[in-house]
Amino acid sequence: MAAEDDWATEGVVDETPAFEIPGVELPEVKLFGKWSLQEVNVSDISLVDYIAVKDKNAKYTPHNAQRYQIRRFRKASCHIVERLSNSLMMHGRNNGKKLMSTRIVKHAFEIIHLLSGENPVQVLVNAVINSGPREDSTRIGRAGTVRRQAVDVAPLRRVNQAIYLLCTGARESAFRNIKTIAECLADELINAAKGSSNSYAIKKKDELERVAKSNR
Q: Which domain covers residue 69, as residue numbers?
């Protein structure tokens, strides 16, 4: 009888948390100890699975040592704030300076909260949604005859492009400028979240979509 019970329960995983203490509630995990992630909402239904801000992705500090490159689409589970921080580590002189990029993001979030009064993580999510191009053009042809064809952009590619454009805009506006890169990043995120044409990312997105429209 015992053998039958073992066979019946084989492969069943006990999902009861080992650290749960009766009558004790665990504190909410807030980014940098300040910003709640429970109230952050992803308004674009196509990007819900690719912008990681849910409780299971919550962290006090946007840093972990996972290897997202070893499996396709794995980086979609990386927290959106960490992806922004990683993208700031661009160009040779900034490679590997994760502490510096995290400090820039933290300072930018504090500026966003002072200027807009909103949760800066929500501002970042809105900026990513508004900055990702929905249509792009690709080269099609062979034997010397090449033409451009408009194509739809995959959701993960939209998020990748948006993060790249936001960081590039902040970096270029901070170069040879009295403003710090944290202030420029805050301005870029606020303008992109509003959909303003003052944002570098919004202008580039509109340019990509305009070229794609002409190649339909």
A: 27-135+149-214
Q: CA–CA distance from 12 to each of 6, 16, 148 (Å)?
A: 10, 12, 53
Closest CA to 186 of 87, 112, 129: 112
Average pLDDT, the chain: 84
d(CA 11, CA 59): 30
pTM listed for this prediction: 0.82
* Of 26, 113, 119, 116, nearest in space to 80 by CA: 119
Domain membership of residue 111 (yes or no) is yes
Q: Any idea what the CATH number is for the domain that residue 97 is in?
A: 1.10.455.10
Question: What length is written for the chain?
Answer: 216
Percent of the chain with pLDDT over 70: 87
pLDDT per residue over 22-58, tens digit each?
Answer: 666 777 778 887 888 888 888 889 888 888 887 676 7
- The answer to whether residue 70 is domain-embedded is yes
The verdict on residue 48 lying in a domain is yes
Which backbone phi and psi does 148 adopt, to 5 degrees?
-100, 140
Q: How many domains does the chain have?
A: 1
